[in-house]
Amino acid sequence: MMADSALGLLRPDTLDSQDGIGVINPADGGLIAHARLYDIGEITAMIEAADAARHGWAARTAKDRSDVLRAWYDLIVDHAEELALLMTLESGKPLAEARAEVKYGAAFIEWFSEEARRAYGEVIPSFATDKRVLTLRQPVGTCAAITPWNFPLAMITRKVAPALAAGCSIIVKPADATPLSALALETLAHRAGVPDTLFRVTPARNSPAAGDLFCTHPLVRKISFTGSTEVGKVIMAKAAGQVKRLSLELGGNAPFIVFDDADLDRAVAGALASRFRNAGQTCVCANRFLVQAGIHDAFVERLAAAVAQLRVDNGINASSTMGPLIDDRAVKRVSGLVARAIEEGAVRVGGSATAPEAGSFHAPVVLAGVTAEMAIASQEIFGPVAPVLRFEDEAEALRIANDTPFGLAAYIFTTDAARQWRMMEGLEYGMVGVNDGLISTEVAPFGGVKESGFGREGSSHGLADYMNVKYCLVGGL
């Protein structure tokens, strides 16, 4: 009955029990529903319809677009519980986390409903008395987005909301594992007044072919992708043929650096929030813990004790504080990384929270004795494992932290204000959290550097990524 109420948000034509893809609950392997799949010909037609619709949408006043987005935000808030339940069923995350994601995702729509009114151009002091120099901000055009399964609602709203606010149209291909949250968002957007052809969600029968279509269709002017660096590089190469605008949020290897002078309680709380949220399946979660020698043993002891208290269970259960991984392949990969680290000399610390035997669960793990040379310190784990490395001084911490091709997020815990500034400036990352393990917010620019990608989501920068700057010279004055 609970599932039925959540599925009630979806239009009947987005479900197909005969020829659709089965969406599986990773907590118990149960079938939730069959989502309709779209062929390449159908997606092509949607791109063409979206491109035709964008001109009228862009011609509407900024206030009109703002009001529609605000109505979409209101509907999401009104249906927050159904959306959270749907997300928990298809992604496995605890219901409390799913509720938080609905609130977080909706905040992007609220933010960009307001930013739609602030897409300012500028008048530039002229170089000649009879000429005037100005700029206009105009929508990029028709956009495509490819979104991941780990945040099936928020990763869509922070791409779609700025696109619509800017005056663009957008087609979204959600992850095969979690299409239902995306389809529910589409339903609510259309109810709010977003034109039906302007924003479409298209679970694809052939996902690689759909990605190729986005990269090669001449009407698609921009692609926004959140996912692995490997796939991001493929998209970048294929989109280069038409010099498409890109926003890429790719893999990470976030360091979580704890200095001797850190507030230990705050550092442990930040570690739990950063590492074990969504069972460690977040692109910005701490991937390796660098702890200074003087506080190392105390930090490891407290972290292990806190991790042992986690309740690993089906996310639907109110007592659950950590859910399953997305599927059995993910469990096998994480288990393999842990086993290899132990073979290489790492030590599993403390008792562990137990995990159900059925479903795609992996118990949370704290590993001490990890070195920078181990695979677990260089690969994105994407699971509930906290590898702890010891360091001696600030220079060593910075060297280890930056010794990676990735540069998405980093975290530092220290009460020394001067050190905070040195580390913020010295860390080669797009985002740095100081004395806090949760950094994501709609008001700040989210994104990475190096092989973690480029482009920003959230803040005024997120709107700018969907707009072109046009320079105009007016002469003869």
UniProtKB/TrEMBL annotation:
| GO terms under cellular component | cytosol
Source taxon at top rank: Bacteria
Q: Which GO terms describe its molecular function?
A: succinate-semialdehyde dehydrogenase (NAD+) activity
Q: Which InterPro entries match?
A: Ald_DH/histidinol_DH (IPR016161), Ald_DH_C (IPR016163), Ald_DH_CS_CYS (IPR016160), Ald_DH_CS_GLU (IPR029510), Ald_DH_N (IPR016162), Aldehyde_DH_dom (IPR015590), Aldehyde_DH_Superfamily (IPR050740)
Question: What PROSITE patterns does the record point to?
Answer: ALDEHYDE_DEHYDR_CYS, ALDEHYDE_DEHYDR_GLU
Q: Which residues form the Aldehyde dehydrogenase domain?
A: 19-471
Q: Where is the active site?
A: 249
| Keywords annotated in UniProt | Oxidoreductase
**Gene Ontology annotations of biological process type:** gamma-aminobutyric acid catabolic process
Family affiliation: Belongs to the aldehyde dehydrogenase family.
Descriptive protein name: Succinate semialdehyde dehydrogenase
Source organism of this protein record: Novosphingobium mathurense
